[in-house]
Amino acid sequence: MVKRKPPLPAKAHIRLVVNDEAVEASFAPHKTLLEILREDLGLTGTKHGCELGECGTCTVLLEGHPVLSCLVLGLACEGKHVRTVEGMRHGPDLHPLQEAFAELGAAQCGYCTPGILLTAEALLEANSAPTRDEIKLALSGNLCRCTGYIKIYEAVELAASRMRGDPTTPPEEAIYGRR
Amino acid sequence: MDDGRSPSRHTPPFRVIGTPRWKIDAAPKVTGETKFADDLALPRMLYAKILRSTEPHARVVRVDTSAAERMNGVRAVLTGAALPTPFGILPVSQDEHALAIDKVRFIGDPIAAVAASTEEIATDAANAIEVEYEQLATIASIEDAVASPEPRIHDYGPVGNFHKLIDVEFGDVDAGFSQSDYVREDLFFYEGNTHLPMEQHAALADWSADRKLTVWSSTQTPHYVHRALAKVLGLAPAHIRVIACPNGGGFGGKSDPFSHEIVVAKLAMLTGRPVKITLTREEVFYCHRGRHPTLMWVKTGVTNDGRIKGMHFRTLLDGGAYGSYGVASTYYTGALQTVTYQVERYKFQGARVFTNKAPCGPKRGHGTPQPRFALEIQMDKIAEALGQDPAELRLRHLAPPNALTANYLSIGSMGLGECIRKVVKASGWNERFRQLPDGRGLGLACSSYISGAGVAIYWNNMPHSGVQLKCDRGGGVTVFCGSTEIGQGSDSILAYIVAEILGIEPIDIRVVTADTDLTPVDLGSYSSRVTLMTGNAALQAAERAREIIGKAAAKKLEMSHDRIVFADRRVFDAQDPERGISFAEAVQLAEAAEGTVGTVGSYTPPNSAGKYRGAGVGPSPAYSYSAAVAEVEVDGDTGILRVPRIWIAHDAGRCINPVNVIGQVEGSVYMGLGEAIMEEMAYRGNRNVVHKIPSLLEYKSPTTLEMCDVVTYIVEDPDAKGPFGAKEVGQGPLLPVPPAIANAVYDAVGVRIDEIPITPDKVVKALKRKTAGQTPRFGPSAFPAVPWPETIHVPPPWEGGDGRAVEPVTAGTAFPEERQH
């Protein structure tokens, strides 16, 4: 039997606020926010597509701003507010963006969806009535391979409209195509 | 095998079918609750890493794992010796090993694997493994493979580095050319590209104390993974359970059994602990199985009004390092040319070569976007040469519905004409084609795709899809099916169809899918088969349940069974809706009368009309149709191409859920746009064949800023073979996009780009040639000499053929219309 040395106890420890809840996390100091959320805090709603900052899949909100959680070191999050897709629901109710995405099939495989939802939420926070071009620009760092983005634009527009208090129904063309 | 199902058997109005609604997994997906394979974790779980080849073609002389084995935290190290049995998706191409035995065939080929307590230790340990290679000459391209029979990449295949050679003729094409008023030959090249699913492949294996294996994987084909695991691990299939997690995008890239799935299973068996692997994005590029780079030569002869008298199609596919689906891919490059426009005589010669690159396989459209690109551009050239409008030309020569093609494909419903008319009208084609200012253009192309393959991957006469259905006393229904949700909505289809038949709501139905222990076999999410095949299986199971439940309800209500209606969660009298009982009560009555209420349904596609060698690829229960018009803007100085808008119409037979149909069309257009203008699997030009760009940043795919506007029209031409008339929608709408864009570039600036991707450098080169008075074209200039095998001769149906091959005859007989003269 080979005698093995136990690994060195080398964990970092931080306190942060995730989805309005104060939490603590202990982790190897090289770990990214993405890894801490998924592996140490059990929040697997945040996905990853490259872990190199290229695809936007792992986007979360840090202090209200979209960041690529695969490029943020956990150590940099001491005392910070983080929002993940798990924090979007209001109690049992879906966020209007989530509702609109479900309604229009803007989530197909659903893998890029959490990152896109949070990017869109930050956009609507800053601009309650974005134009189609403003939505495109805001989402230009989030790759989606399923939808061709169109249902995503339509869902963001639908949610924005409803969040402004307009009880909009989706355009017929988005659902049935042009007739 | 016609089951007598006709569209009239299920006619509107429907309660569920055709109504837009949430997919049943929409809420879990928008809340992040859906568990993809890498989201799973088990207690005591280890992490695996695979060491991959850094050489494109080499003998593996020595693999030294001693340093890795000594590292703290390493629990097991695996080399090819532990997994000597070969595997592969097709029975004829069992040419892969989970880990290299004696040879590596591309940069990225798996060699060894490690299981360790953390991913970091596993990575360090894999890097500590020493591999000694003895380099072999590299086969880098199609031309290289044809010219270099040695060294052989594999020791099977017809000759040299050819993997497959096909030569089949339906009628005498040369006679067809001699009857033609106009004959032309063209060369085309379609570059390879990859699926790029946002989810990296992941797999988790657990070997329980009772010596049973469970593997969770991001796979589109759990049944085929089940078979491969049993074969390579030497385990009884009954002791293996494969669960396909929802896929974070597949597009064909997760359809093969993969090395990493076998490796984690073996590591779990060796360590007695769960083992997970998640591939890096770079590794996903090496798994590949994407679009085959394909060189094509097409000779077509037409009459003055554009009738195709003969078509001779040659394809040469770069298969990469392994077989994968390649034999089927090769056949597919010759299969569907005949289902859009009437082709009187047809000859197909196809070849696939091995090269030392990541293996190619099935990507959305599997083997058909390449020939469709060639065919639709050639049609555009023919129309121009004949002085005809390309839309009119196509409309005049549509393949007829409910008929056999020259190569014995059985077309059912055929809505292509309506699709063409929709996009022509919407795009202002008649006023704008050839009339836009320089630099702007319109292009048209059409296509067709299968709704499931008529033949399974391995020969058997069992159903392609099975459903079990269980009715609960509370009125809930559970549907069990082996189908795999990859984002296309397959789980929802099961719920919608069962809800429609049983008169309940989709929310009342629990769907259990893709679990080889719990669900009956479905072959997987590929070849656009799921809606039609699982849909028909679910329909049968639900109708059998309705029969049992309806009988019990009729007895209780003291009325004849044929007056029973299922709707609004009730079972009632069609003539007196007040007279009825709840669905739950009817289930209870049925259970009291007959015992537990459970039914099964299954679907087997009709037999192929073709009986010749190769006739298994191409037949489908139903064919979808698409037509697209692309608008482009081309900068004459820089060659930069913009695609502001694409109009597309798709014949989906019947929309089960229209909003999902639109989503599939838009997604297909997006993927076709990427292939047309930017995506390519690019390898370094020297003979090292290192992938240039195995990353999401460098492999250019369309972002929101490149994506075009899409105007979608749905045409519903119900097909007798589809559930409620439904045909496929997930792949077909990709196909017309690349050729429509190429044709639009020609309309814009008068140059032919006969290869994709259509990048600015190619446009500029073609424009320079135009200015210099040379042929205004960019594309391949030669098709290498291929040692074609002896031609298989199959007379088309209208020449007295019965689908079987015959000895060649000299004189071709006339096409039926001509015989009438």
How would you characterize the overall build of this protein?
- Chain A is built from six helices and five strands; from the N terminus they run ββαβββααααα.
- Chain A is α+β, with helices and mostly antiparallel strands.
- Chain A has a five-stranded mixed sheet with strand order 2-1-5-3-4, with helices on both faces.
- Chain A is elongated and about 75 Å long.
- Chain B contains 20 helices and 32 strands.
- Chain B is an alpha/beta fold and 821 residues long.
- The interface between A and B is large, with 68 and 69 residues.
Summarize the structure.
The complex is a heterodimer of chains A (179) and B (821). Chain A contains six helices and five strands; from the N terminus they run E-E-H-E-E-E-H-H-H-H-H.
Features of the shown structure:
heterodimer; A: 179 residues; alpha+beta; 5-stranded mixed beta sheet; 6 helices; 5 strands; B: 821 residues; alpha/beta; 7-stranded mixed beta sheet; globular; disordered N terminus; disordered C terminus
Uncertain stretches of 5 or more adjacent residues of chain A:
none
Distance between the termini of chain B: 36 Å
Number of strands of chain A: 5
Query: Quaternary state, please?
Result: heterodimer
Across the major sheet of chain B, the strand order is: 3-5-1-12-9-10-11
Fold blueprint:
The complex is a heterodimer of chains A (179) and B (821).
Chain A: E1 12-18, E2 21-27, H1 33-40, E3 59-62, E4 65-68, E5 81-83, H2 96-104, H3 113-126, H4 132-138, H5 150-163, H6 172-176
Parallel strand pairs in A: 1-5
Antiparallel strand pairs in A: 1-2, 3-4, 3-5
Helix pairs in contact in A: 2-5
Chain B: H1 26-30, E1 46-52, E2 58-64, H2 66-70, E3 74-79, E4 103-104, E5 110-116, H3 119-127, E6 130-135, H4 142-147, E7 162-170, H5 173-178, E8 182-190, E9 202-207, E10 213-217, H6 222-233, E11 240-244, H7 259-271, E12 275-278, H8 281-287, E13 294-302, E14 308-318, H9 326-332, E15 346-353, H10 369-386, H11 390-396, E16 403-404, E17 410-411, H12 416-426, H13 429-432, E18 440-450, E19 465-471, E20 477-481, H14 490-502, E21 509-513, H15 530-557, E22 564-567, E23 570-573, E24 576-582, H16 583-594, E25 598-603, E26 623-634, E27 641-651, H17 658-677, E28 709-715, H18 737-749, E29 752-753, E30 755-756, H19 760-771, E31 777-778, E32 792-793, H20 816-819
Parallel strand pairs in B: 1-12, 7-32, 8-30, 10-11, 14-15, 20-21, 27-28, 29-31
Antiparallel strand pairs in B: 1-5, 2-4, 2-6, 3-5, 7-15, 8-13, 9-10, 9-12, 13-14, 16-17, 18-26, 19-20, 19-25, 22-23, 23-24, 26-27
